[in-house]
Fold each of these.
Amino acid sequence: MASQHIDLARLGWNDWFEERGKCGPAATIARVAAVDRDLYLLMDQTGAFRAKLAGSYLYQDHPSQGLPCVGDWVCVEKHPTGDFGLVTMLLERRTALRRKSAGDSGEVQMIAANVDTVIIVQSCHYDFNLKRLERYLVMVREGGADASVLLTKTDLVEPEVLSAQLAEIRAAGVTAPLLTLSNVTREGIDDLKRTLLPSKTYCFVGSSGVGKSTIINQLIGRQRLRTKGVSGTGEGRHTTVRRELMLLEGGALVIDNPGMREFGILGAESGIGGSFSDIIGIASDCRYRNCSHTGEPGCAVLEAVHSGALSQEHYDNYLKLREESAFYQMSTVEKRKKDRDFGKYIKSAKKDLENR
Ligand SMILES: Nc1nc2c(ncn2[C@@H]2O[C@H](COP(=O)(O)OP(=O)(O)OP(=O)(O)O)[C@@H](O)[C@H]2O)c(=O)[nH]1
Ligand SMILES: [Mg+2]
Ligand SMILES: [Zn+2]
């Protein structure tokens, strides 16, 4: 192993990657800590720095992997000053946490790469749902990572309620490790801490408001991440807007995630996914992946309306429902916020890593 790689081990690099990950002579290896469209925050043995995709990246063949996402290992050509780089290549993923996009297009969206264990978080207070838990477990298994289940807000339910939920999970044949905690009483935090091993990557997923960011702040020991604010029960507010990879003092790497509303919008439990599945199916033919179906060139949905294949009324209803849905509003707010915050965030993340 080259000496560089020994240092990278702190960030999760290991023999599996060493055997497969080769960069050209001008490039070094780094890990993606955060992504904001075409801007990347990377970490390597020197700290954190920004990067963009190299022009050559776009011309290379990445059909199965696509663009780098949080947790990915990439080859990067660093500017001599060391604070900026160009990503030239994406290295092979050991695990890939993905979710399916809407419709039958089979398109998948990356959540995080090279995660060792996905911690599926549900609140035992209002959020507990065995079916949803099972869907998460399937998603994790398909991605090749391990799963563990974490029930939060144990301070808000009677002990009998909690033990009934645990029994229900076990009765369903779920064999993943089961943890419970309260961020208020701190009961269970130390148990969780003990399960987080150095150089391993853990990804927290679950609905908005279950306490993912609060947990990570507890693990870090300060208010690093924005949370809903204390004492609320925090149902569904989408406080976290960015996936990010952080290095804990104990050496474990953790990824915070925005609450996965997508599970709601794409799943059978959502009105949009159900009654408008025809539109979502057609939308998979739109030229742009993030098409709003309101005037973009190459929009398959508008084409279908014009040709009469899709009724105007049905289309109008779809727009109306979408406008009203928290998902749609959130995603625009999210984009605007991201623009504003990413610069600020990079600064603090850099400082954070360099202070280690
Ligand atoms: N009573 C109680 N409240 C908690 C607990 N954990 C978190 N909360 C509260 O729940 C709310 C949501 O917490 P967050 O950490 O922001 O939730 P999140 O899962 O990160 O949510 P998103 O970022 O929107 O996905 C906040 O008001 C927290 O203070 C807990 O164990 N018990
Ligand atoms: Mg959060
Ligand atoms: Zn469209």
Amino acid sequence: MGHLGVLLFLLGGLGALADICEIPQVDSKLVERLGQRLLPWMDWLSLEHLNPSIYVGLRLSSLQAGAREAFYLHILKLSYQHSLLGLTFNDDNSDYQDKPSMGQLALYLLALRANCELVEGRKGDRLVSQLKRFLEDEKKAIGHNNKGQPHTSYYQYGLGILALCVHQKRLHDSVVGKLLYAVEHEQHLRQGHLSVDTVAMAGLAFTCLEHSNLNPNRKHQITRAIENIREKILKAQTPEGYFGNVYSTPLALQLLMKSSMPGVELGTACLKARAALLASVQDGAFQNALMISQLLPVLNGKSYVDLISPDCEAPRVMLKPVVETPSPTQEVISVVLNVPSVSPPYINSISVPAGSSLEDVLKKAQKLRGFMYGTQNTLSGPFLTSVMGKEAGEREFWQLLRAPDTPLLQGIAEYTPKDGETIELRLATW
Ligand code: B12
């Protein structure tokens, strides 16, 4: 090969490198500040606040919480085993009555794997059987003709497959087949628009299956689905660089990281996403513990697929707690709260201190009378379930919007309305 040949060869190599999705290291102080926001959650040990996703996120990050982290897993185990297997340690506690959902059980299994445990023995087998049963029920709900919908969501369906896969538990081809079908026929994964979170989760599940070769009969279909998902996610990149929106970008990057796509400038797309993400972290967009738990692995170059063989010996930096003192504010703002989907419609201007969350606005409106709302606690925080006594029905939800028509990207606990803003609560279908 002549000099020119060598040069072209090297340039070709560099070009190929640039097409790999890599996330260069991020300022460790920034990562630490994110991790510190998880610490208060790890002290919140009431059953309805326990969150296996936080544990998973921390274990796949470059950070650790020492004894606190170990104790958190211990409490997670007690609580999940109790509510799923009926093992007692305080029988008359009513908190135990709600059984974890399919997705929560899946996240719990991911948490065990993040501690390098494999589900085994009688207890482990029962947990695996429960998750398999959940998936079988969902498969039935989707139906032979794929016309139905899972009771939970395709997001949880993907999470369930992923969790069993990292424990090397085999699922029937037909269970995997439903998710393959949904990815091929995208309309099933839409919540108005393509849900990047949902396809990314499906992609993580398929990537695990591909690595583990647990469904050899579906091998080619799985490989094609992963390619298809990568393409969908790339197409969903916004001009700012997000894949979908700021909060779906962490899962999207978990999927794209370390992958390459022939003929596509994946490297550039990922660098752009990383830059957009870091700017929004600096702007304080990541306050929600669940969101932080999906982001931290990415900032450490890891994804949920790494739970196939987690590195439990990797050195991690110990987190030190910080006390954040919110600066008191004298300024009062007014926010218009509008609920057109009830009769008579509700509309009122509510005054709250600047910096209040939407939840503070709802509380104040309720205190002033004439307004009522209800919430349910979830891993993402308080989910608005009813407004003015009207509960959202099946496949309905109370959508949060900034007038005239912009859906909020945060929930009631995190969104802080600005002075003069109108917030609409709209009964919508998904
Ligand atoms: C499916 C889904 C929905 C479904 C949930 C219904 C269902 N039966 O599954 C629907 C379409 C109703 C929905 C609604 C909303 N969602 Co949503 N949702 C998701 C998704 C894709 C998966 C959630 C899940 O199943 N997790 C796994 C299970 C095991 O955890 P879980 O806690 O048990 O799950 C429940 C909660 O997540 C809850 N939920 C769903 N979304 C949200 C959002 C918030 C803020 C809260 C508190 C709870 C909540 O519904 C789940 C099922 O019961 C996530 C994606 C993600 N990356 O996490 C986005 C996600 C959590 N949603 C998001 C948002 C913004 C919303 C809305 C606020 C949108 C809006 N403008 O109205 C509303 C919630 C409004 C309200 N009433 O409080 C953001 C949250 C970002 C953040 N900063 O925290 C995410 C990350 C999507 C995104 N990339 O923007 N969502």
